[in-house]
Specification:
The complex is a heterodimer of chains A (857) and B (222).
Chain A: H1 3-13, H2 19-52, H3 54-58, E1 62-66, H4 72-81, E2 91-105, E3 110-120, E4 130-132, H5 136-139, E5 145-148, H6 150-156, E6 163-166, E7 169-179, E8 193-197, H7 201-204, E9 213-221, H8 226-238, E10 243-246, H9 247-290, H10 292-300, H11 305-335, H12 338-342, H13 356-378, H14 395-398, H15 405-425, H16 428-459, H17 466-473, H18 482-513, E11 521-526, H19 531-541, E12 549-559, E13 562-563, H20 582-585, E14 588-592, E15 600-605, E16 620-625, H21 626-632, E17 639-644, E18 647-659, E19 670-672, E20 683-688, H22 693-706, E21 711-714, H23 715-754, H24 756-768, H25 773-810, H26 819-840, H27 842-846, H28 849-856
Parallel strand pairs in A: 3-8, 5-7, 14-19, 16-18
Antiparallel strand pairs in A: 1-9, 1-10, 2-3, 2-6, 2-9, 4-7, 5-8, 6-7, 11-20, 11-21, 12-13, 12-14, 12-17, 12-20, 15-18, 16-19, 17-18
Chain B: E1 2-13, E2 16-28, E3 33-37, H1 44-51, E4 59-64, E5 67-68, H2 74-84, E6 85-88, H3 100-111, H4 118-125, H5 141-153, E7 159-163, H6 171-188, E8 191-196, H7 199-204, E9 207-212, E10 215-219
Parallel strand pairs in B: 3-8, 3-9, 6-7, 7-8
Antiparallel strand pairs in B: 1-2, 1-4, 4-5, 9-10
Helix pairs in contact in B: 3-4, 3-5, 4-5, 5-6
Chain lengths: 857, 222
């Protein structure tokens, strides 16, 4: 038998007495690995699915889109790309116009804001739009009919065969759309889709001046590659505000955003694994103390320190490997669930297949985490003298000298955590940030648990009933695991608490707006000649709208004397040609008024005084929103020349404003003074408050009948949509965070199991001295109650800090603590702790003293 | 076989020097049987630990089978123990996770030897041939000490150190264990060094070293 074989055999034999405990550690590792494998395998699946379905994401090889009808030169370009003018076409094109409008079903009198997609041609060229009844997509063209999202039928109480009114157009509902390739489920949150043939779009009379529509031409290329075409024409078309997209670019963008989601979820999973590692470290620490005799005897019998160390190191590695293997199997199961949870974000059908990369990584990372966390406590073995087998008469003297390897092991652990985080985040800075955040959280929880132990020891009132004193004294018994349990449970509470607080605070901004004094319905696309009629409608219905706010669409043509697009098309130095120069290219919808509104705050410059007459030749003063001014690189005093429907208007930035965009109000990037834009083509919006949902629906119906082009946005719908979107994100993250709490529970069970014999002996002693089972149970209860409360309090305090910082600095929103809900969450976690503790201790208070003494013999 | 010169051990205790052993010098021939006796705290166990190379002395030297222990590092001393030294402890010190047979085989396995039938033979020799697969917790104290004895002899040690081997046993069981030790000593010529309180046991040794306050107060060979 060789030395290595001895190590392996002993490592195996040494598991005999503690398999239950080891299986818990295996569980602690397995949960984290499962979470990690599931999310990483899912991300891999997603990448593969996006690659395979890339062409159907766009539905074409190439697309041109704009906020205005595409200029003729794009049509000419598309014609030449598809060889339309020649005998033999080398491609095809299709057009889609997308805009928001009110849908109305006369039979049921239901109205709803919808997203109209008017389609011409064979779109999509790739992928298939599935409908019910099947094949309805191909029959859509050629008649006045519509295919709608199933949700629309539900909200309007309509059925297939009903007539749907869009503006002045009438369409028969042909069926429902089940699946559009490349479409994200959450995208329909704001408005269910309605597909109609573009040839009848005119009949709706909806696309009037100022309407916000997106005009897209999709191109299929039978010859050649789309990317060179896009690269060549993009700079030339920027001046026309036409954006060009290819399959490759859509794929890349999608990959980036979805991978980011995957990476964040992966980091949350990593926390679960690290908590498992913590459980391993703590258990090994206690385990080694219980193995002192065995280790000393082995040393007496001639085993070297290195051999004994190797025995337990092999054990830790094997434990990590088994835990990881179980985790991988579990992870492959959980992987099937993840698409269900994030389905609404996914534009592709994810085919779930095992990802070998994720499997190997899970095995490696899980084993490594178990090893590296076990390393530092295991090093204590090297200091155990064979002399301890004889007696330990001079413990102080016999204590091993400080082992230099221990701080080294701690450094290796920290580096490993950082490396894992960097690998998972795929970014050094984010990985380090994550590591630092974990370090802070661990530090706070660690201090909290030390504080508890010390505090209980020093200040706990001696007048308290005995069972409480005994239970709390257990928190600082020798070989206690108070710190570990508080860390593991506290981290779970911290994660869940932070998520809850974020969700609550992000949604709260909108909830405030639901206050009875705030508007809850927004009407837009109002034409100037419709104002009086609308006002009359409001008056008849007994509602009061806010004054009509004018909106003038415009574009920037020069900033500080520099044209946004150079004198020649495609001047690559012009600001409008820059990547990210969107602020220069976009269409601005500005307003004019002479006062600030509630959601605005002046941060620089001065507001104009309307009473002071302006020099008609001088540039008009305007107020710019601070963030867009920063993007444009303009400040107070800088000059901007606008293209207002073809008319140049010179302005000078007079002030900068901060705007609270989260308010349900009409906010603008640029505000003009009165007297400049009155003559420009414009539309109006107004807000109102109609409390009763029935009255609101009825009012919208009247509007749809009389002013079909006016679009109404119901705040409660916005609220629902936001709730749904944020709810989905939170659900996904919470799903991963639950793994941390589960690991915390397993670590807790492990901690209880580790001290089982000690507890049983104590309980027997107490019973021998006359304690009832009930009293013993209460001692245990007191201990776990204290653990649970402390872990929860520390975790939630951390959560409040983290959520405050995130709300304040990342989301730039105000912060409040929903005390009642947090108490509920705390209650649940404390209850979990107490139940796990009591359940694992049943043996302790059920057995009679004699039974235990016999078993112990 | 065993030779120590001016062996002195001083521990730090509460900031003060505590001299546990002072200037111990003696030697023991191969096949000898030495009992170290003395009251509690006289330094018996410390002396045993130093003789077996479990600890390093503050001063003085120990030669075991001709080798100066001071010249060996931790690992070399461990190897020396694995090859030449057997141990019997007062509290048996069997490894609880191993069966009786496995406990006996550990020293052989540590050397990388194939344990073969020796473990079983030894257990039969100490009267436990039918309990090879029992765990320590399933054996009585006397049985455990007999397993420990079998373990100590498994490597055919040149020298056996025993620390109060009967201290935790009743008189009758203790007697059996001592008989066994004496027999094995005779049969294999193993040198025996034992620390004991037990007068009967000490009287069976061929030589007795009496300690008090860390010094040799009498040596029956002198």
């Amino acid at each position: 038998m060789t030395g290595a074989r001895f190590v392996w055999t002993m490592a195996w034999r040494e598991t005999r007495a503690s398999r239950r405990r080891l299986s818990l550690l295996i569980g602690a590792v397995a949960i984290g690995v499962a979470a990690l494998v599931a999310i990483n395998a899912f991300t891999d699946n997603l990448r593969v699915s996006i690659r395979d379905q890339a062409r159907s994401l766009l539905g074409a090889d190439l697309s041109f889109s704009s906020r205005r009808p595409l200029p003729d030169r794009v049509d000419a370009l598309v014609d030449s790309l598809t060889c339309r003018t020649t005998e033999e076409p080398c491609g095809a094109s299709a057009r889609v116009v997308t805009f928001a409008a009110m849908g109305y079903v006369p039979r049921t009198e239901g109205t709803r804001l919808v997203r109209v997609e008017a389609v011409r041609g064979d779109y999509p060229f790739y992928g298939e739009i599935r409908t019910d009844p099947a094949g309805a997509w191909r029959r859509l063209q050629g008649d006045r009919q519509a295919l709608v999202d199933p949700a629309l039928l539900t909200t309007l109480g309509a059925a297939v065969g009903d007539t749907l009114a869009l503006g002045t157009g009438r369409f028969v509902i042909l069926g429902t759309v089940l699946n559009v390739p490349g479409d994200v489920g959450i995208g329909t949150a704001f408005g269910p889709r309605v597909f109609v043939p573009e040839e009848y779009l005119e009949e709706t009379n909806l696309l009037r001046f100022g309407s916000r529509a997106q005009y897209t031409t999709y191109v299929r290329l039978d010859r050649g590659d789309a990317q060179p075409v896009a690269d060549a024409y993009r700079p030339l078309l920027r001046g026309d505000r036409v954006s060009v997209r290819t399959v490759e670019e859509s794929q890349r963008n999608l990959n980036e955003s979805l991978s980011r989601l995957g990476r964040y979820l992966g980091l949350v999973a990593l926390i679960a694994l690290l908590l498992g590692g913590l459980g391993v470290a703590s258990a090994v620490h206690v385990f080694i103390r219980q193995k002192l005799d065995t280790i000393a005897v082995l040393r007496c019998l001639g085993a070297t320190a290195r051999q004994v160390f190797a025995i337990y190191l092999v054990q830790a590695a094997a434990l990590g490997l088994i835990g990881s293997a179980i985790g991988v199997v579990l992870g492959l199961g959980i992987q099937l669930l993840i698409p269900q949870i994030v389905r609404d974000f996914l534009p592709v059908d994810v085919r779930v297949t095992p990802s070998w990369g994720a499997i190997w990584a899970g095995l490696g990372v899980g084993t490594w985490v178990a090893l590296i966390f076990a390393l530092r406590p295991l090093l204590a073995i090297r200091g155990i003298s064979p002399l301890e087998a004889l007696r330990r008469p001079y413990e102080e003297a016999a204590r091993a000298p400080r082992d230099l390897l221990r701080p080294l092991a701690a450094v290796a652990l920290a580096l490993s955590v950082a490396a894992l985080a960097i690998l998972q985040a795929e970014s050094v800075s984010q990985g380090l940030g994550f590591t630092a955040a974990i370090g802070i959280a661990v530090g706070v929880l660690w201090l909290a648990s030390l504080g508890l132990i010390r505090g209980v020891r020093r200040w706990f009132p001696s007048r308290f009933p005995y069972v409480w004193r005994q239970g709390l004294a257990n928190l600082y018994r020798p070989a206690n695991q108070t710190v570990t349990v508080v860390l593991a449970l506290g981290f779970g509470a911290y994660l869940l608490g932070t998520l809850y607080l974020l969700q609550h605070n992000l949604l709260r901004d909108l909830r405030i707006d639901a206050a009875p004094t705030r508007p809850n319905i927004l009407l837009f696309d109002i034409q100037p000649d419709q104002r009086d009629g609308l006002l009359a409608e409001f008056t008849v219905a007994g509602h009061t709208p806010t004054p009509f706010v004018p909106i003038v669409p415009m574009r920037i043509s020069e900033v500080e004397g520099r044209p946004v697009f150079g004198p020649a098309a495609g001047d690559s130095a012009a600001p409008g040609q820059r990547r990210g120069g969107w602020a220069f290219r976009r269409e601005y919808r500005s307003t004019y008024r002479d006062t600030l509104v509630r959601s605005e705050r002046l941060v620089a410059g001065d507001w104009w005084d309307p009473a002071v007459p302006r020099d008609p030749g001088a540039p008009a003063p305007v107020s710019a929103e601070a963030s867009v001014a920063e993007e444009l690189g303009v400040g107070v005093g800088d000059e901007i020349v606008w293209d207002v429907q073809g008319v140049p208007v010179r302005t000078r930035v007079a002030s900068l404003r901060e705007v609270d965009w989260a308010r349900f109000e009409t906010n603008f990037y640029f505000v003009f003074p009165s007297g400049v834009l009155e003559a420009a083509p414009q539309i109006f919006v107004t807000l109102s408050r109609i409390d009763d949902p029935g009255a609101r629906a009825q009012f919208q119906r009247r509007l749809v009948e009389r002013y079909p082009n006016v679009t109404a946005l119901d705040l409660s719908l916005v609220q629902q949509a936001l709730d749904r979107i944020i709810g989905h994100v939170v659900l996904a993250v919470r799903f991963m965070a639950i793994f941390s709490l589960a690991t915390g529970a397993v670590v807790l069970i492990g901690a209880v199991a580790t001290s089982r014999f000690q507890r049983i002996r104590e309980a027997v002693l107490l019973k021998t001295l006359g304690a009832t089972s009930d009293q013993v149970a209460r001692v245990v209860l007191a201990e776990y109650l204290a653990l649970g409360v402390l872990a929860c309090a520390a975790g939630l305090l951390l959560a409040i800090g983290a959520a405050w910082a995130l709300t304040r600095f990342v989301f730039e929103s105000s912060f409040a603590v929903p005390a009642l809900q947090l108490l509920g969450l705390s209650g649940a976690i404390v209850l979990l702790t107490v139940l796990v503790g009591l359940w694992n201790s049943t043996e302790v208070f059920r057995k009679t003293p004699l039974e235990v003494l016999r078993a112990e013999e | 076989m065993l030779r120590c010169e001016s062996l002195t051990q001083v521990y730090q205790s509460g900031g003060r020097d505590l001299t546990v052993l002072e200037d111990i010098t003696f030697q023991l021939e191969p096949g000898g049987f030495l009992a170290i006796v003395g009251p509690s705290g006289s330094g018996k166990t410390t002396l045993l630990g130093l003789l077996a190379g479990l600890d390093r002395p503050t001063r003085g030297s120990v030669h075991l089978d001709g080798q100066d222990l001071a010249g060996l590092d931790e690992n070399e001393r461990a190897r020396l123990r694995g090859e030449k030294v057997g141990f019997v402890f007062q509290s048996f010190q069997l490894i609880p996770t191993l069966t009786a047979l496995e406990n006996v085989q550990v020293p052989l396995e540590l050397r990388g030897d194939d344990p073969g039938p020796r473990g079983r033979e030894l257990l039969t020799r100490v009267g436990l041939g039918d309990r090879t697969h029992h765990y320590p917790a399933q054996l009585s104290g006397g049985e455990q000490q007999r397993v420990a004895l079998a373990r100590a002899f498994s490597i055919r040690p040149k020298i056996l150190f025993a620390d109060e081997p009967t201290g935790n046993l009743d008189a009758k069981t203790g007697g059996t264990v001592i008989d066994l030790m004496a027999e094995l000593n005779r049969e294999s010529g193993t040198t025996l060094v034992l620390v004991t309180h037990d007068h009967d046991l000490a009287s069976r040794a061929r030589r007795t070293l009496r300690l008090a306050d860390g010094r040799v107060v009498s040596d029956s060979a002198a």
